[in-house]
Amino acid sequence: MKLMKSLTCLLVAASVSGMLCWSQSLRQDSRTGGESTKHDGGKLAIERHFESVQPQPRPQFGGALPGRELLQERRLSRARLEQRIKSIQAARPEVATQGAALPGILMRPALTTGALPTSVATGDFNGDGHPDFVVANGLTNDLWIYLGKGDGSFQLPRVVPLSKGLSPVCVIAADLRGKGTLDLVVAESDTSTIGVLLGNGDGTFGYETEYQLPESPSSLVVDDFRHDGKLDIAAVMVTNVNPGTTAVPYIAFLSGDGTGHFSAPVVTSNWGFYSTAWNLDSGDVDGDGLPDLLITGPGNENSQIFINNGDGSFTPGATVIANAQPSGPPLVLDGRLGDINGDGCADAVVADLNTMVWVALGDCTGKFSNPVPVYMGANNAAVRLNDVNGDGHLDIVTGAFPGFEGTSLGAYGGNSINVALGDGKGNFGTARTYVGTGQAYSIGIADFNGDGKKDFVTAESDADSATVYLNDGSGGFGFPQGIYAGVAGQITINAPYSSLSFADLNGDGKTDAFLLDDEGTNAELFAVAFLNDGTGRFTGPVTSDTGISWITNAQSDYRLGDFRNTGRLDMIAIGTNSSFSNASQYILYLKGNGDGTFAKAMPVTTTGAQGILTTGDFNRDGKLDFVAVDGSGSLTLTMFLGNGDGTFRSLAPVPFNTGAGTIGAIPLRAWTADFNRDGKLDVLLFASGNGYWTNQSALWEFDGNGDGTFQPLGNSLQDFNRLLWLT
């Protein structure tokens, strides 16, 4: 997989990120400063009102625990935050989720939360008919309540400190007493407890009641597991015992009495299938009327069903996602159960860090079909099932955090939600991506603006914020946005092989997008077009198999151009200069069909066709040519004159010394223009010592003679100290 290998280590190590309702060790800070406490009988309503509070920058870390320095930084950040808190007696201006658009890049607005938000839940907490949401904050050890106005905006948050438990990693809103008032259930990692806060129906909550567990809970779910009309709690726990060495506490079941109180936990032990389960969901997978559990986690990198025995215990059932998959080992973080194909049986959808989700169809007997990947185009940390476009079919929604893949482009993905619309038969369309503010580790779904369409809210651990995404009714959630662009059944294009180019590929007068993507089991190279529909959106992807593999024929640069004078754009690519061998020197020409697709072609080996290139009619014969620049230390420029039919003839290579230090220089970028204004095309070249990490860089100007040759090279602009890139 192209996914950066160290990503796995990052996920396992960064436990305090609170991914998916998961954390290991967070410590409670002291609380000082502006808060107003109201006591009304048994009520506890501690409110802090914020005025223009922005999230503080947070340090990066990769250890298993945050460490003293991180905690100290958090304390200082929180102290600074507390100084900006003001207690008020009257209503203050309210915080809106939508701000005025600014020139330049439009960034989605976000709402401030406490430190290290780990989980979000939605519901009508004050009974006004408008959905609200609550965010659990792992480091400040509190819950922030955002009461909705019904128009997509929210009142200033009410902060409810957790008086007993430490490090909330998951929060659930549910009517535990059956009286129409929502209560809160919180998994608290550091104290190995579950906290219950009963709602007062006005947006406030009573004192926390704690229930002790034998191990730290990482996630929980509320459901009627005994089918008696009363809600119960099931929590999955983490342990430090090595898998398979001994039976360890794994699932804690707390039976509810219908009044908001729960029994001592009934514990189901496990022989190390997971030692660190991350998430769970409930649903009846075997048709007996009792909710079962789907548990996901990184232990064996798969997901498993646990069958409800009806007495508070659970028995291991089917494995939904096995460790071995054609695309490589899955990195499972979250999973959900729901009927996605309309047969009345619970199906499983499991989020995979490898830019996909796995869909396994259930048969109502506890068994599942072989999982099929649905590519979402991001590092999926959370998954939800909901009908977001109102067609009656469940759709897939994932939240993503950033990931880096080392390609020639070096693309980032994440900080987004991703939506794939379902057809009700178990199939899903091309995923669309909506960029947000931070890492979307948890997703809440509700109609926040009263238009009858499901909106989203995300908890973003890295940014200490929550972002609201308003639905346009078609499953769209506003700008900035993009689309997943992958080859079906293969890996994502989230980090493509090449950079993007923009041109009219289908002759409709609209600017389209194009790139090269390396996909498939044999690393096939695909030409990928995204056609502009004229509204600022791109359809796609339209893929064309080039017929070659980037492993055997690696490309370093490409250009689009009308090389046949047909009015249709073609593409040429040249080899990479990484090996400096004859085998890497070739021209790949793809004939454009005028509709965004390209014909297959075989590479033509020729000397000098590697490195970087730029195009132009250098000999003024009306046919498009290109120049390739290659080498290290001593660079070489080679002119390839176009014959007007997609073939080229090369002129003698022109070597020139870089003079850019003893380590040599590598060509990074070339441009074509009439730089000296003599009516003949010239070439400007930028090269850098040792590539990007440079001590010396230089610019060369090659003045054209109008016949495909260049004047003798004059002085170059050299010694740009530590210049990394030009555009």
TrEMBL record:
Signal peptide region: 1-20
Entry keyword annotation includes Calcium: no
Keywords: Glycoprotein, Repeat, Signal
Presence of keyword Cell inner membrane: no
InterPro entries: FG-GAP, Int_alpha_beta-p, Integrin_alpha_N
Protein's name according to its UniProt entry: VCBS repeat-containing protein
